[in-house]
Amino acid sequence: MPHRHHILCALTAAALLGACGAKEDLKPPANQPAPVVPVGADRAPTTEELTTPDAQARPARSDELLKRSEQREPDDFDLPPPG
Q1: What's the rounded Cα separation, in Å, for the pair 61 and 55?
Q2: pLDDT range class, residue 8, cuts 50, 70, 90
Q3: More confident of the two residues 25 and 12
Q4: pTM for the full predicted model
Q5: Would you tell me which of 8, 36, 44, 58 could form a disulfide with 53, CB atoms 3.0–4.6 Å apart?
Q6: How far apart are CA 39 and CA 24, in angstroms?
Q7: Cβ atoms within 10 Å, residue 45
Q8: 25-71: per-residue pLDDT in tens?
Q9: Cα 32 from chain centroid?
Q10: What Cα–Cα distance (Å) separates residue 14 from each residue in 3, 6, 17, 21, 60?
Q11: Cα gap 30→7, rounded to integer Å
Q12: Up-side HSE of residue 17: CA atoms within 13 Å toward CB?
């Protein structure tokens, strides 16, 4: 019976902690200096620019299916293993 009590307490704590997230925009702390402007930049990046991943971090996905078999072009660097 004590085992069920621990599980119930853990689930209740997880539910309470999951519900305490903030729903408003983040703001910089008061009385703190502004973020440093990156070297070579004219201005500090905005929050939107900092939180939007670039193409390298999130590459586009190609969902194009192979519709028919095609002969591969010869590859000069596709060599057999040595030995």
Answers
A1: 11
A2: confident
A3: 12
A4: 0.33
A5: 58
A6: 31
A7: 13
A8: 777 778 887 778 889 999 888 888 888 888 788 777 777 777 777 78
A9: 27
A10: 17, 12, 5, 12, 35
A11: 41
A12: 6
Q: Round to whole Å and give the CA distance between 19 and 23.
A: 10
What would the two tokens of residue 41 be? 């930049």
Query: In one letter, which amino acid is 39?
Result: V
Instruction: Read off the amino acid at residue 1.
Output: M
Q: Give the mean pLDDT of 18-22.
A: 66
Structure tokens at 66: 């192979």
Residue in the structure block whose two tokens are 């729903």: 23
- Of the candidates 29, 30, 58, 34, the one whose C-alpha atom is nearest the C-alpha of residue 44 is 34
Tokens of 63: 């969902």
